[in-house]
Amino acid sequence: IYGNQSGTQSNNSCNYEFVVVEFTTDSALSVQHTAINVSASPTIPVSTTMTAVDTTQSMIVFGGHNHNADDNAIGDEEFDRVRITDSTHWEWLPGESPNTGTQDIRVQIVDWNDSDVSVQTGTTSMTTQSTVTLTNEVDFTAIVPDRTMLLATYYITGTSAGNTDLIYVHGVMNSSGNITFTRGAAPPDDFP
Prior knowledge:
Elements: E1 30-38, E2 46-49, E3 58-65, E4 80-86, E5 89-94, E6 103-111, E7 131-134, H1 164-167, E8 170-173, E9 179-182
Antiparallel strand pairs: 1-6, 2-5, 3-6, 4-5, 7-9, 8-9
């Protein structure tokens, strides 16, 4: 997890909870810890190279981004997502291009290097509705929910910066393996 504000703006108290996971040397797991630095108003999305991975056994973990000290308002550039686009590239896409100065975007590329691990990736869109549901075995290859993790990032454009009901998304997987993203509504049938 990464968050930083460069400059002299005053900072409020912030509490983190974290988990550190380490695998033994017998594990085939490989993790690339990487970051990109983007200047003000970059062309988005921003794509960058990485060491080659097997995309069916790899995932990206978003570590966050820092803000330039001149950025003192919440806008679409605060809502960003990352994804692996092919075996040698990952991509960062904010809701709009940051306009106040440079920022660093940090990720971890996790390659399990294990045929017992299956990673599926995809995209879905939420336009004006408050709920989008993806159905197990219809919208993606069948999964077993009690052996599956859901990790998601998103970006948003055209926000009302103060309207958190519209900009914060909640994603859950239920016991049938269906995945639902909601905003401005109570989450459905959480995984038991």
